[in-house]
Amino acid sequence: MKEVDLNSINLSFIKQQVGNKASFMLLGCSGKINDTIKDIERIIESKKMRCRIYTIGRGAAATAGVLAGGSGTLGMVGIGLHRLATINPDYEVGRDLINNKITVEYKKK
Fold first, then answer.
1. Is the entire prediction scored with pTM above 0.85?
2. How far from 45 is each of 19, 30, 41, 52, 86, CA to CA, in Å?
3. Which helix (H) or strand (E) holds 33?
4. The pLDDT of residue 58
5. CB-based contact 107:92 (threshold 8 Å)
6. What percent of the chain is helix, strand and coil (3-state, nearest 5)?
7. What are residue 108's phi and psi, to 5 degrees?
8. Distance CA 90, CA 109 (A)
9. 15-89-55-6 Cα dihedral, nearest 10 degrees
10. Which of 11, 24, 32, 78 could form a disulfide with 2 if both were Cys (CB 3.0 to 4.6 A apart)?
11. What per-residue confidence (pLDDT) applies to 75?
12. If you ran DSSP here, which 8-state letter would residue 21 be given?
């Protein structure tokens, strides 16, 4: 998977990667994650493809909440419903808030 710094690219790079059905990782996204995710989603959908956007580590946190006393149960239900609503996406876009990166993975090979 190609890794690039967000500050060294522009939207044409993302358009090219999506057009080529490539997977890539954007590093150095601090403070720009949500806006960049919106741009990526718009580009993917403009190519008549579907995407699932998720937060990396969210499932593990919800599972830990369930195991620790059930406080993560609603989170697990929400994650499951989201996966059903976005079944069989062309791309999965993962936002990693801790490491300030975005993973864009093409799933239909």
1. no
2. 11, 24, 6, 11, 13
3. helix 33-46
4. 62
5. yes
6. 45, 25, 30
7. -105, 80
8. 9
9. -10
10. 24
11. 54
12. T
**Do the Cβ atoms of 28 and 6 come closer than 8 Å?**
yes
The string of pLDDT tens digits covering residues 70-95 is 555 555 555 555 455 557 899 999 99
Q: Which amino acid is at 100?
A: N
> Helix, strand, or coil here: 2?
strand
pLDDT < 70 positions in the chain: 58-86
Joined tokens for residue 31: 């403070």
The beta strands (E) that lie in the chain are given as: 2-5, 24-27, 51-55, 91-96, 101-106
User: What number of H helices and E strands is found in the chain?
Assistant: 4, 5
> How many residues appear in the chain?
109
